[in-house]
Amino acid sequence: MSALGHKVKQLIYIAIRTSQGETTAVISHISTAKQERATRDELKEAILMTATVCDIKGIASCLIPALEVYDNAK
């Protein structure tokens, strides 16, 4: 058992890759985060939180695609 849990790890990964502006990497982890019961609001907060540690570039390139993929994931 992981101390952080799979959902938290996915959200952290998504936040880190967002801070790097890596849209493809972010999108590739959305379905897994949703399967781990991450909510849309948790996903959005993880992405927006990166603004406190980096510039807006990553958010601008990742937020909308990530939310669209989340909304369409099973």
Task: Tell me briefly what this model is.
This protein is an all-alpha fold and 74 residues long.
Assign an overall shape: globular
What does the largest sheet look like? none
* Helical content band: over 70%
Unreliable segments of 5+ consecutive residues: none
> What is the CA-atom radius of gyration, in angstroms?
11 Å
Which series of helices and strands comes N to C? Answer: HHHH
Beta-strand percentage range:
under 5%
Total beta strands:
0
Distance between the termini: 25 Å
Mean pLDDT: 91
Count of discrete alpha- or pi-helical segments spanning 4 or more residues: 4
Structural class comes to mainly alpha
List keywords for this structure.
mainly alpha, 4 helices, 74 residues
Task: Tell me what you see in this structure.
With 74 residues, the chain is mainly α. It has a domain at 27-74. 70% of the residues lie in helices and 0% in strands. It has four helices and no strands. α1 (6-19) runs parallel beside α3, α2 (23-35) runs parallel beside α4 (57-72) and α3 packs antiparallel against α4. The longest helix is centred in the C-terminal third of the chain and has 16 residues, at 57-72.
Write the SSE topology.
Blueprint: H1 6-19, H2 23-35, H3 40-48, H4 57-72
Helix pairs in contact: 1-2, 1-3, 2-4, 3-4
